Amino acid sequence: AHCAVWSSEVWETPNGGYLNDVHKARGRSAKLKCFGCGRSGATLGCHKGNCVKNYHYVCARACGVVFMENHKLYCSDHRAYAKDALRTDFSEPMKSLKIGGKNDKKLNTGQCLRLGSLVVHSLGKIQKDIDGFHNRYYIMPPGYTSTRIFWSFVKPKTRTLYLMKIERSSLNMPLFLVTAADAPSMTFQSEDVQKVYAEVMGKVWEMNKNFFSHGDLFSVFPMQRSRKQGRNAFCLNGPQFWGFGIDNVRKHLESLSDAVVCAVPLTEKSTPYRFCFRNPTENAVTDLQRKRAALEAEKALENSSGCARTEGMSAVDKSTSSGRITRALVGKGDQDQTSPTKSGANVREVLNDSSKQNFESNQAKYKEMKKYPMEQRLAAKRSHIHGWGLFAKRKFPKHSMIAEYMGETIGQTIADKREKKYEILGMGSCYMFRLDWHNIVDATNIGCMARFMNHCCAANAYAKVITVNTSLGLEKKIVVFANQDIEQGDEITYDYKFPVEDGSLRCTCG
Question: pTM for the full model?
Fold first, then answer.
Protein backbone atom coordinates (compact mmCIF):
# COMPACT_ATOMS: atom_id res chain seq x y z
CA ALA A 1 0.00 0.00 0.00
CA HIS A 2 2.86 2.43 0.76
CA CYS A 3 4.26 2.04 -2.76
CA ALA A 4 0.95 3.28 -4.15
CA VAL A 5 0.49 6.04 -1.56
CA TRP A 6 3.93 7.59 -2.15
CA SER A 7 3.82 7.39 -5.96
CA SER A 8 3.78 10.84 -7.56
CA GLU A 9 0.73 10.09 -9.77
CA VAL A 10 -1.48 8.73 -6.98
CA TRP A 11 -3.76 11.01 -5.00
CA GLU A 12 -6.19 10.23 -2.19
CA THR A 13 -9.76 11.51 -1.94
CA PRO A 14 -10.39 14.18 0.75
CA ASN A 15 -12.50 11.82 2.87
CA GLY A 16 -9.71 9.25 2.71
CA GLY A 17 -9.52 5.56 1.91
CA TYR A 18 -9.77 5.87 -1.90
CA LEU A 19 -6.62 5.95 -4.08
CA ASN A 20 -6.92 7.29 -7.61
CA ASP A 21 -4.68 6.89 -10.69
CA VAL A 22 -2.91 3.83 -9.32
CA HIS A 23 -3.01 2.31 -12.82
CA LYS A 24 -0.80 5.17 -14.07
CA ALA A 25 1.85 4.47 -11.45
CA ARG A 26 1.68 0.77 -12.21
CA GLY A 27 2.21 1.40 -15.91
CA ARG A 28 5.25 3.58 -15.22
CA SER A 29 6.74 1.05 -12.80
CA ALA A 30 7.09 -1.56 -15.54
CA LYS A 31 9.84 0.53 -17.13
CA LEU A 32 11.75 1.44 -13.95
CA LYS A 33 14.10 -0.61 -11.77
CA CYS A 34 14.71 -0.13 -8.10
CA PHE A 35 18.06 1.47 -7.19
CA GLY A 36 18.18 -0.68 -4.05
CA CYS A 37 17.24 -4.22 -5.11
CA GLY A 38 17.54 -3.93 -8.88
CA ARG A 39 14.06 -5.31 -9.56
CA SER A 40 11.36 -3.65 -11.65
CA GLY A 41 8.24 -2.01 -10.24
CA ALA A 42 9.85 1.01 -8.55
CA THR A 43 7.55 4.05 -8.43
CA LEU A 44 9.09 6.17 -5.63
CA GLY A 45 11.46 8.64 -7.30
CA CYS A 46 13.66 11.35 -5.89
CA HIS A 47 12.15 14.82 -6.33
CA LYS A 48 15.54 16.43 -7.01
CA GLY A 49 15.78 17.50 -10.61
CA ASN A 50 17.84 15.24 -12.90
CA CYS A 51 18.00 12.51 -10.23
CA VAL A 52 17.25 9.10 -11.77
CA LYS A 53 16.98 7.05 -8.58
CA ASN A 54 13.74 5.13 -8.02
CA TYR A 55 12.87 2.78 -5.19
CA HIS A 56 10.33 0.42 -3.75
CA TYR A 57 9.01 1.64 -0.42
CA VAL A 58 10.89 -0.94 1.66
CA CYS A 59 14.08 -0.39 -0.31
CA ALA A 60 13.71 3.39 0.05
CA ARG A 61 13.64 3.11 3.84
CA ALA A 62 16.66 0.80 3.81
CA CYS A 63 18.63 3.20 1.58
CA GLY A 64 17.99 6.22 3.81
CA VAL A 65 15.42 8.04 1.66
CA VAL A 66 13.83 11.04 3.40
CA PHE A 67 10.02 11.20 3.28
CA MET A 68 8.42 14.62 3.61
CA GLU A 69 5.04 15.75 4.89
CA ASN A 70 4.27 17.41 1.55
CA HIS A 71 4.36 14.00 -0.14
CA LYS A 72 7.87 14.45 -1.51
CA LEU A 73 10.94 12.32 -0.95
CA TYR A 74 14.68 12.72 -1.48
CA CYS A 75 17.37 10.09 -1.85
CA SER A 76 20.36 9.92 0.48
CA ASP A 77 22.52 11.94 -1.91
CA HIS A 78 20.05 14.84 -1.94
CA ARG A 79 18.71 14.71 1.59
CA ALA A 80 20.14 18.17 2.19
CA TYR A 81 17.23 19.59 0.21
CA ALA A 82 14.92 18.32 2.95
CA LYS A 83 16.84 20.04 5.72
CA ASP A 84 14.13 22.54 6.74
CA ALA A 85 11.13 20.28 6.00
CA LEU A 86 9.31 18.19 8.55
CA ARG A 87 10.12 14.51 8.60
CA THR A 88 7.21 12.09 8.64
CA ASP A 89 7.07 8.87 10.63
CA PHE A 90 6.78 5.40 9.13
CA SER A 91 3.72 4.23 11.02
CA GLU A 92 1.39 1.92 9.12
CA PRO A 93 -1.88 3.61 8.08
CA MET A 94 -4.55 1.91 10.22
CA LYS A 95 -7.36 2.28 7.69
CA SER A 96 -8.78 0.48 4.70
CA LEU A 97 -7.49 1.65 1.34
CA LYS A 98 -9.37 1.06 -1.89
CA ILE A 99 -7.88 1.37 -5.36
CA GLY A 100 -10.24 3.25 -7.64
CA GLY A 101 -10.44 2.94 -11.41
CA LYS A 102 -11.72 5.42 -13.94
CA ASN A 103 -15.30 4.72 -12.88
CA ASP A 104 -16.60 3.53 -9.54
CA LYS A 105 -18.58 0.54 -10.76
CA LYS A 106 -20.56 -2.02 -8.84
CA LEU A 107 -19.11 -5.45 -8.20
CA ASN A 108 -20.29 -7.66 -11.05
CA THR A 109 -21.07 -11.36 -10.85
CA GLY A 110 -17.89 -13.41 -11.06
CA GLN A 111 -15.64 -10.61 -9.79
CA CYS A 112 -13.87 -10.62 -6.43
CA LEU A 113 -13.26 -7.75 -4.04
CA ARG A 114 -9.80 -7.78 -2.45
CA LEU A 115 -8.97 -5.74 0.65
CA GLY A 116 -5.51 -6.63 1.88
CA SER A 117 -5.53 -10.23 3.10
CA LEU A 118 -9.33 -10.43 2.67
CA VAL A 119 -10.96 -11.53 -0.58
CA VAL A 120 -14.75 -11.39 -0.96
CA HIS A 121 -15.76 -14.01 -3.53
CA SER A 122 -19.53 -13.53 -3.35
CA LEU A 123 -21.76 -10.91 -1.73
CA GLY A 124 -24.65 -13.38 -1.45
CA LYS A 125 -28.31 -12.67 -2.06
CA ILE A 126 -30.46 -10.48 0.15
CA GLN A 127 -33.63 -12.15 1.45
CA LYS A 128 -36.80 -10.23 0.55
CA ASP A 129 -39.24 -12.10 2.79
CA ILE A 130 -37.14 -12.47 5.96
CA ASP A 131 -35.76 -9.76 8.24
CA GLY A 132 -33.26 -11.91 10.14
CA PHE A 133 -30.30 -11.39 7.81
CA HIS A 134 -29.53 -7.82 8.77
CA ASN A 135 -29.38 -5.71 11.89
CA ARG A 136 -28.89 -2.03 12.55
CA TYR A 137 -25.24 -2.04 11.51
CA TYR A 138 -24.59 -4.96 9.14
CA ILE A 139 -26.11 -6.76 6.14
CA MET A 140 -25.44 -10.51 6.28
CA PRO A 141 -26.94 -12.12 3.15
CA PRO A 142 -26.91 -15.92 2.71
CA GLY A 143 -24.36 -17.05 0.17
CA TYR A 144 -21.78 -14.49 1.30
CA THR A 145 -18.34 -16.08 0.86
CA SER A 146 -14.91 -14.69 1.69
CA THR A 147 -11.37 -15.86 2.42
CA ARG A 148 -8.70 -14.34 4.65
CA ILE A 149 -5.02 -15.07 5.23
CA PHE A 150 -4.52 -15.22 9.00
CA TRP A 151 -2.49 -16.93 11.69
CA SER A 152 -2.94 -20.69 11.94
CA PHE A 153 -4.11 -22.52 15.06
CA VAL A 154 -2.40 -25.73 13.85
CA LYS A 155 1.20 -24.55 13.38
CA PRO A 156 2.72 -21.68 15.39
CA LYS A 157 4.05 -18.59 13.63
CA THR A 158 2.44 -19.79 10.40
CA ARG A 159 -0.27 -18.19 8.31
CA THR A 160 -3.06 -20.10 6.61
CA LEU A 161 -6.17 -19.45 4.55
CA TYR A 162 -9.58 -19.26 6.23
CA LEU A 163 -12.79 -19.85 4.27
CA MET A 164 -15.81 -18.01 5.70
CA LYS A 165 -19.44 -18.41 4.66
CA ILE A 166 -22.89 -17.25 5.67
CA GLU A 167 -25.69 -19.78 5.25
CA ARG A 168 -29.36 -19.95 6.15
CA SER A 169 -30.09 -21.87 9.33
CA SER A 170 -33.20 -23.92 10.08
CA LEU A 171 -34.53 -20.98 12.11
CA ASN A 172 -34.18 -18.62 9.12
CA MET A 173 -31.25 -16.89 10.75
CA PRO A 174 -27.70 -16.33 9.44
CA LEU A 175 -25.34 -19.22 10.19
CA PHE A 176 -21.64 -18.25 10.22
CA LEU A 177 -19.12 -20.91 9.21
CA VAL A 178 -15.32 -20.74 9.09
CA THR A 179 -12.86 -23.45 8.01
CA ALA A 180 -9.05 -23.30 7.99
CA ALA A 181 -7.15 -24.66 4.99
CA ASP A 182 -4.73 -26.61 7.21
CA ALA A 183 -7.62 -28.14 9.21
CA PRO A 184 -10.37 -28.85 6.63
CA SER A 185 -12.16 -31.36 8.85
CA MET A 186 -12.76 -28.78 11.59
CA THR A 187 -15.52 -26.25 10.88
CA PHE A 188 -16.58 -23.64 13.41
CA GLN A 189 -20.19 -22.51 13.13
CA SER A 190 -22.66 -20.47 15.14
CA GLU A 191 -25.56 -18.07 14.68
CA ASP A 192 -23.49 -15.47 16.57
CA VAL A 193 -20.61 -14.15 14.48
CA GLN A 194 -18.75 -12.84 17.52
CA LYS A 195 -18.98 -16.22 19.24
CA VAL A 196 -17.48 -18.21 16.38
CA TYR A 197 -14.82 -15.54 15.88
CA ALA A 198 -13.83 -15.69 19.55
CA GLU A 199 -13.59 -19.46 19.32
CA VAL A 200 -11.17 -19.28 16.39
CA MET A 201 -9.09 -16.51 18.00
CA GLY A 202 -8.90 -18.52 21.21
CA LYS A 203 -7.30 -21.43 19.39
CA VAL A 204 -4.93 -19.10 17.56
CA TRP A 205 -3.85 -17.61 20.90
CA GLU A 206 -3.33 -21.01 22.51
CA MET A 207 -1.06 -22.07 19.65
CA ASN A 208 1.02 -18.86 19.61
CA LYS A 209 0.98 -17.73 23.26
CA ASN A 210 4.48 -19.12 23.92
CA PHE A 211 5.94 -16.96 21.19
CA PHE A 212 5.35 -13.56 22.78
CA SER A 213 7.75 -11.67 25.01
CA HIS A 214 5.22 -11.29 27.88
CA GLY A 215 6.81 -8.02 29.00
CA ASP A 216 10.42 -9.14 28.68
CA LEU A 217 12.15 -6.25 26.92
CA PHE A 218 15.19 -8.40 26.10
CA SER A 219 13.21 -11.24 24.55
CA VAL A 220 13.58 -12.09 20.87
CA PHE A 221 9.82 -12.60 20.63
CA PRO A 222 7.42 -9.77 19.76
CA MET A 223 5.28 -8.03 22.31
CA GLN A 224 1.59 -8.82 22.49
CA ARG A 225 -0.63 -6.11 21.03
CA SER A 226 -2.64 -4.33 23.68
CA ARG A 227 -6.32 -5.24 23.79
CA LYS A 228 -9.05 -2.66 23.40
CA GLN A 229 -12.69 -2.70 24.32
CA GLY A 230 -14.70 -4.49 21.64
CA ARG A 231 -11.53 -5.73 19.95
CA ASN A 232 -10.37 -8.68 22.00
CA ALA A 233 -7.50 -9.66 19.71
CA PHE A 234 -5.64 -8.64 16.58
CA CYS A 235 -7.61 -5.35 16.35
CA LEU A 236 -10.49 -7.12 14.57
CA ASN A 237 -14.01 -8.17 15.45
CA GLY A 238 -16.29 -10.82 14.02
CA PRO A 239 -17.95 -8.77 11.22
CA GLN A 240 -14.59 -7.34 10.17
CA PHE A 241 -12.99 -10.79 10.11
CA TRP A 242 -15.73 -12.01 7.77
CA GLY A 243 -15.52 -8.78 5.79
CA PHE A 244 -19.11 -7.53 5.87
CA GLY A 245 -18.12 -5.16 8.70
CA ILE A 246 -15.51 -3.34 6.59
CA ASP A 247 -16.68 -0.07 5.05
CA ASN A 248 -15.74 -0.92 1.46
CA VAL A 249 -17.63 -4.22 1.61
CA ARG A 250 -20.61 -2.55 3.28
CA LYS A 251 -20.71 -0.07 0.41
CA HIS A 252 -21.00 -2.90 -2.12
CA LEU A 253 -23.63 -4.67 -0.02
CA GLU A 254 -25.69 -1.48 0.08
CA SER A 255 -25.41 -1.31 -3.72
CA LEU A 256 -27.14 -4.66 -4.26
CA SER A 257 -30.41 -4.45 -6.18
CA ASP A 258 -32.55 -5.71 -3.29
CA ALA A 259 -30.78 -3.80 -0.51
CA VAL A 260 -33.82 -1.53 -0.09
CA VAL A 261 -35.65 -4.34 1.74
CA CYS A 262 -33.22 -3.89 4.64
CA ALA A 263 -34.54 -0.36 5.18
CA VAL A 264 -38.23 -1.36 5.26
CA PRO A 265 -38.98 -3.77 8.13
CA LEU A 266 -41.55 -6.48 7.61
CA THR A 267 -42.89 -6.30 11.18
CA GLU A 268 -42.87 -3.81 14.00
CA LYS A 269 -40.30 -5.87 15.89
CA SER A 270 -37.85 -5.90 12.97
CA THR A 271 -34.81 -3.64 13.07
CA PRO A 272 -34.14 -1.60 9.93
CA TYR A 273 -30.61 -1.32 8.64
CA ARG A 274 -29.00 2.13 8.77
CA PHE A 275 -27.50 2.90 5.36
CA CYS A 276 -24.19 4.76 5.45
CA PHE A 277 -22.96 4.98 1.85
CA ARG A 278 -25.81 4.46 -0.65
CA ASN A 279 -29.18 5.48 0.73
CA PRO A 280 -32.18 3.98 -1.10
CA THR A 281 -34.34 6.43 -2.98
CA GLU A 282 -37.76 7.46 -1.76
CA ASN A 283 -39.35 5.97 -4.88
CA ALA A 284 -37.67 2.62 -4.25
CA VAL A 285 -38.98 2.51 -0.67
CA THR A 286 -42.47 3.52 -1.82
CA ASP A 287 -42.52 0.88 -4.56
CA LEU A 288 -41.45 -1.80 -2.09
CA GLN A 289 -44.13 -0.84 0.42
CA ARG A 290 -46.75 -0.77 -2.33
CA LYS A 291 -45.65 -4.17 -3.63
CA ARG A 292 -45.82 -5.72 -0.17
CA ALA A 293 -49.27 -4.24 0.38
CA ALA A 294 -50.42 -5.65 -2.96
CA LEU A 295 -49.15 -9.11 -2.06
CA GLU A 296 -51.00 -8.97 1.24
CA ALA A 297 -54.16 -7.90 -0.56
CA GLU A 298 -53.86 -10.74 -3.07
CA LYS A 299 -53.84 -13.27 -0.27
CA ALA A 300 -57.44 -12.35 0.46
CA LEU A 301 -58.53 -12.83 -3.15
CA GLU A 302 -60.17 -15.97 -4.50
CA ASN A 303 -57.87 -18.93 -5.17
CA SER A 304 -54.80 -17.11 -3.91
CA SER A 305 -52.88 -20.40 -4.08
CA GLY A 306 -53.56 -20.63 -7.81
CA CYS A 307 -55.98 -23.57 -7.72
CA ALA A 308 -59.49 -23.80 -6.27
CA ARG A 309 -58.90 -27.41 -5.21
CA THR A 310 -56.24 -26.33 -2.73
CA GLU A 311 -58.44 -23.69 -1.13
CA GLY A 312 -60.75 -26.12 0.71
CA MET A 313 -63.90 -24.67 2.25
CA SER A 314 -62.45 -21.16 2.12
CA ALA A 315 -63.07 -21.13 -1.62
CA VAL A 316 -66.76 -21.89 -1.01
CA ASP A 317 -67.04 -19.08 1.52
CA LYS A 318 -65.43 -16.60 -0.86
CA SER A 319 -67.49 -17.60 -3.89
CA THR A 320 -70.70 -15.84 -2.86
CA SER A 321 -70.03 -13.11 -5.40
CA SER A 322 -67.80 -12.75 -8.40
CA GLY A 323 -64.77 -10.52 -8.23
CA ARG A 324 -64.56 -10.29 -12.00
CA ILE A 325 -64.48 -6.74 -13.28
CA THR A 326 -66.38 -6.19 -16.53
CA ARG A 327 -66.15 -2.57 -17.49
CA ALA A 328 -68.74 -2.95 -20.23
CA LEU A 329 -71.25 -3.03 -17.37
CA VAL A 330 -70.14 0.37 -16.21
CA GLY A 331 -72.52 3.15 -17.13
CA LYS A 332 -71.15 5.27 -19.89
CA GLY A 333 -68.88 8.14 -18.94
CA ASP A 334 -70.37 11.54 -18.47
CA GLN A 335 -71.34 12.74 -21.93
CA ASP A 336 -70.11 16.18 -22.81
CA GLN A 337 -73.43 17.77 -23.66
CA THR A 338 -71.68 20.67 -25.33
CA SER A 339 -69.74 18.50 -27.76
CA PRO A 340 -70.76 18.35 -31.42
CA THR A 341 -72.00 15.00 -32.70
CA LYS A 342 -71.89 15.43 -36.46
CA SER A 343 -68.75 13.77 -37.70
CA GLY A 344 -66.88 15.91 -40.19
CA ALA A 345 -69.12 18.96 -39.69
CA ASN A 346 -67.79 22.45 -39.40
CA VAL A 347 -67.26 23.20 -35.73
CA ARG A 348 -68.39 26.82 -35.98
CA GLU A 349 -71.69 25.77 -37.58
CA VAL A 350 -72.55 23.25 -34.87
CA LEU A 351 -71.51 25.08 -31.70
CA ASN A 352 -73.21 28.03 -30.09
CA ASP A 353 -71.33 30.63 -28.08
CA SER A 354 -71.46 28.77 -24.73
CA SER A 355 -70.56 25.32 -26.06
CA LYS A 356 -67.84 26.72 -28.30
CA GLN A 357 -65.87 27.84 -25.29
CA ASN A 358 -66.04 24.38 -23.68
CA PHE A 359 -65.11 22.69 -26.94
CA GLU A 360 -62.07 24.88 -27.42
CA SER A 361 -61.05 24.32 -23.80
CA ASN A 362 -61.21 20.53 -24.23
CA GLN A 363 -59.39 20.81 -27.55
CA ALA A 364 -56.56 22.76 -25.93
CA LYS A 365 -56.34 20.35 -22.98
CA TYR A 366 -56.31 17.36 -25.32
CA LYS A 367 -53.44 18.78 -27.38
CA GLU A 368 -51.51 19.64 -24.22
CA MET A 369 -51.94 16.08 -22.93
CA LYS A 370 -50.80 14.56 -26.23
CA LYS A 371 -47.57 16.57 -26.13
CA TYR A 372 -46.11 14.17 -23.56
CA PRO A 373 -45.96 10.40 -24.07
CA MET A 374 -48.03 8.37 -21.64
CA GLU A 375 -44.87 6.74 -20.25
CA GLN A 376 -43.73 10.16 -19.02
CA ARG A 377 -47.05 10.89 -17.31
CA LEU A 378 -48.21 7.54 -15.94
CA ALA A 379 -46.88 4.20 -14.74
CA ALA A 380 -48.50 0.82 -14.11
CA LYS A 381 -47.41 -0.65 -10.76
CA ARG A 382 -48.60 -3.12 -8.17
CA SER A 383 -51.51 -1.76 -6.17
CA HIS A 384 -52.81 -2.55 -2.71
CA ILE A 385 -56.37 -2.19 -4.05
CA HIS A 386 -56.27 -4.91 -6.67
CA GLY A 387 -53.43 -6.39 -8.74
CA TRP A 388 -52.01 -3.66 -10.92
CA GLY A 389 -52.89 0.02 -10.68
CA LEU A 390 -52.26 3.28 -12.51
CA PHE A 391 -49.95 5.80 -10.81
CA ALA A 392 -49.05 9.38 -11.62
CA LYS A 393 -45.46 10.24 -12.49
CA ARG A 394 -46.13 13.98 -12.25
CA LYS A 395 -48.67 16.34 -10.71
CA PHE A 396 -52.14 16.75 -12.24
CA PRO A 397 -54.20 19.82 -11.30
CA LYS A 398 -57.92 19.47 -10.73
CA HIS A 399 -59.99 18.99 -13.94
CA SER A 400 -56.87 18.47 -16.04
CA MET A 401 -56.70 15.59 -18.53
CA ILE A 402 -54.80 12.57 -17.27
CA ALA A 403 -55.08 10.01 -20.05
CA GLU A 404 -57.21 8.84 -22.93
CA TYR A 405 -58.86 5.44 -22.55
CA MET A 406 -57.82 3.82 -25.83
CA GLY A 407 -58.74 0.48 -27.33
CA GLU A 408 -60.69 -1.19 -30.11
CA THR A 409 -64.09 0.37 -30.83
CA ILE A 410 -66.74 -2.35 -31.29
CA GLY A 411 -70.52 -2.62 -31.27
CA GLN A 412 -72.77 -3.98 -28.53
CA THR A 413 -73.26 -7.38 -30.24
CA ILE A 414 -69.52 -7.98 -30.63
CA ALA A 415 -68.95 -6.85 -27.06
CA ASP A 416 -71.41 -9.44 -25.72
CA LYS A 417 -69.72 -12.22 -27.69
CA ARG A 418 -66.27 -11.18 -26.53
CA GLU A 419 -67.37 -11.02 -22.92
CA LYS A 420 -68.57 -14.63 -23.09
CA LYS A 421 -65.31 -15.59 -24.80
CA TYR A 422 -63.26 -13.96 -22.08
CA GLU A 423 -65.22 -15.87 -19.46
CA ILE A 424 -64.57 -19.19 -21.22
CA LEU A 425 -60.86 -18.37 -21.43
CA GLY A 426 -60.81 -17.68 -17.68
CA MET A 427 -59.64 -14.10 -17.95
CA GLY A 428 -60.04 -12.31 -14.63
CA SER A 429 -60.96 -8.98 -16.17
CA CYS A 430 -62.06 -7.62 -19.50
CA TYR A 431 -61.41 -3.95 -20.02
CA MET A 432 -64.47 -2.57 -21.81
CA PHE A 433 -65.65 1.01 -21.53
CA ARG A 434 -68.86 2.29 -23.09
CA LEU A 435 -68.34 5.13 -25.55
CA ASP A 436 -72.02 5.74 -26.30
CA TRP A 437 -75.26 3.75 -26.61
CA HIS A 438 -73.96 1.86 -29.67
CA ASN A 439 -70.17 1.65 -29.34
CA ILE A 440 -67.86 0.20 -26.71
CA VAL A 441 -64.07 0.58 -26.39
CA ASP A 442 -62.42 -2.80 -25.69
CA ALA A 443 -58.89 -2.46 -24.25
CA THR A 444 -58.49 -6.09 -23.20
CA ASN A 445 -56.05 -7.02 -25.96
CA ILE A 446 -55.50 -3.65 -27.67
CA GLY A 447 -55.17 -0.68 -25.37
CA CYS A 448 -52.97 1.44 -23.13
CA MET A 449 -52.07 1.51 -19.46
CA ALA A 450 -55.19 3.58 -18.65
CA ARG A 451 -57.04 0.28 -18.36
CA PHE A 452 -55.25 -0.43 -15.09
CA MET A 453 -57.28 2.17 -13.19
CA ASN A 454 -58.74 0.55 -10.08
CA HIS A 455 -62.08 1.24 -8.46
CA CYS A 456 -62.36 3.50 -5.44
CA CYS A 457 -65.46 4.75 -3.66
CA ALA A 458 -63.75 8.13 -3.20
CA ALA A 459 -62.10 8.29 -6.61
CA ASN A 460 -59.65 11.04 -7.49
CA ALA A 461 -60.48 10.86 -11.21
CA TYR A 462 -63.56 10.71 -13.43
CA ALA A 463 -64.15 9.72 -17.05
CA LYS A 464 -65.85 11.88 -19.62
CA VAL A 465 -66.72 11.38 -23.29
CA ILE A 466 -65.70 14.43 -25.28
CA THR A 467 -65.44 15.29 -28.96
CA VAL A 468 -62.20 16.65 -30.34
CA ASN A 469 -61.07 17.70 -33.77
CA THR A 470 -58.36 15.35 -35.08
CA SER A 471 -56.76 14.65 -38.43
CA LEU A 472 -59.70 12.32 -39.16
CA GLY A 473 -62.27 14.94 -38.30
CA LEU A 474 -64.44 15.12 -35.19
CA GLU A 475 -64.02 12.04 -33.01
CA LYS A 476 -65.43 10.96 -29.68
CA LYS A 477 -62.81 10.21 -27.04
CA ILE A 478 -63.00 8.73 -23.54
CA VAL A 479 -60.76 10.93 -21.42
CA VAL A 480 -59.88 10.60 -17.73
CA PHE A 481 -59.91 13.88 -15.82
CA ALA A 482 -58.52 14.68 -12.37
CA ASN A 483 -61.28 15.04 -9.81
CA GLN A 484 -58.84 16.73 -7.44
CA ASP A 485 -55.20 17.75 -7.31
CA ILE A 486 -53.18 14.56 -7.82
CA GLU A 487 -49.62 14.45 -6.52
CA GLN A 488 -46.71 12.55 -8.02
CA GLY A 489 -46.82 8.89 -6.96
CA ASP A 490 -50.57 8.85 -6.16
CA GLU A 491 -52.67 6.03 -7.53
CA ILE A 492 -55.32 7.17 -10.02
CA THR A 493 -58.70 5.64 -9.20
CA TYR A 494 -62.10 5.76 -10.86
CA ASP A 495 -65.61 4.93 -9.68
CA TYR A 496 -66.78 1.93 -11.74
CA LYS A 497 -70.39 2.84 -10.87
CA PHE A 498 -71.47 -0.73 -10.29
CA PRO A 499 -74.73 -1.11 -8.37
CA VAL A 500 -73.59 -2.09 -4.89
CA GLU A 501 -76.55 -4.34 -4.24
CA ASP A 502 -75.87 -6.69 -7.19
CA GLY A 503 -72.64 -7.97 -5.59
CA SER A 504 -70.68 -7.73 -8.83
CA LEU A 505 -67.88 -5.70 -7.28
CA ARG A 506 -66.03 -6.33 -4.06
CA CYS A 507 -64.59 -3.03 -2.91
CA THR A 508 -61.04 -3.24 -1.55
CA CYS A 509 -60.12 0.44 -1.79
CA GLY A 510 -60.06 0.75 1.99
Answer: 0.50
